[in-house]
Amino acid sequence: MTEQHASVRYIVDDVQAAIDFYTTHLGFTVRMSAAPAFADVVRGPLRLLLSGPASSGARATPADAAAAGRNRIHLVLDDLDAEIARLTGAGIAFRTEVVSGPGGRQVLLADPAGNLVELFQPAH
C-alpha cells in the first residue's frame, strides 16, 4: 500500500524561497524538487505542491485568481506559544495576533508568496 497524503497546491512566486520557508521553519521535508518550476514537500499526511510561475499548475490558474487567498493550511501544535517564540526568533513575522475560541488558539503567518498558514493549538 502506498503512503496516502492530503494534497494542497499553493501558487508561489519563488519555488526555492517557498521550499526554504516550509522546510526551515515549519518542519516539511522535500519529496521532489524541480525548482524553479515546482516542488513537492510533505509534513505528516500533508503534501504541499509548490507551483512556480512556469509550472502547469500556475499556468492553469485563471488570471483573476492570481493573488494569495483566504484559504490556508492548518498545522496543529502542542505548544503554540513555544512555536511563536521559535519562529519570531527566526525572523518570521505574523499576520495576526493570537486568537482564542472554544476550540483552541490560533495565529496566522504567510509564506514568501503571501499564502496563509494557520498554527493551531487545540483547547485542553
Tell me about this structure.
The protein is an alpha/beta fold. The chain has a single domain, classed as 2,3-Dihydroxybiphenyl 1,2-Dioxygenase, domain 1 (Roll). The chain has three helices and eight strands. The strands form two sheets. Strands 1-4-3-2 form a four-stranded mixed β-sheet. The chain has a four-stranded mixed β-sheet with strand order 5-8-7-6, with no helix packed on it.
How would you summarize this macromolecular structure in one to three sentences?
This protein is 21% helix and 37% strand.
Write the layout of secondary structure elements.
Elements lengths: L5 E6 L3 H12 L2 E6 L3 E6 L2 E6 L4 H4 L12 E5 L3 H10 L9 E3 L2 E7 L5 E7 L2
Parallel strand pairs: 1-4, 5-8
Antiparallel strand pairs: 2-3, 3-4, 6-7, 7-8
Relevant terms:
2,3-Dihydroxybiphenyl 1,2-Dioxygenase, domain 1, 124 residues, 3 helices, single chain, four-stranded mixed sheet, alpha/beta
The CATH topology assignment is 2,3-Dihydroxybiphenyl 1,2-Dioxygenase, domain 1
Spatial arrangement of strands, main beta sheet: 1-4-3-2
Uncertain spans:
none
Q: Cα-atom Rg, whole angstroms?
A: 15 Å
Portion in beta strands: 35-45%
CATH class: Alpha Beta
- The CATH architecture term is Roll
Secondary structure tally: strands: 8
Portion in helices: 10-25%
CATH homologous superfamily (4th level) name: 2,3-Dihydroxybiphenyl 1,2-Dioxygenase, domain 1
Could you describe the largest sheet, including whether it forms a barrel? 4 strands, mixed
Helices and strands, in N-to-C order? EHEEEHEHEEE
Would you tell me the structural class of the helices and strands?
alpha/beta
The separation of the N and C termini measures: 35 Å
Tally the helices: 3
Mean pLDDT: 89
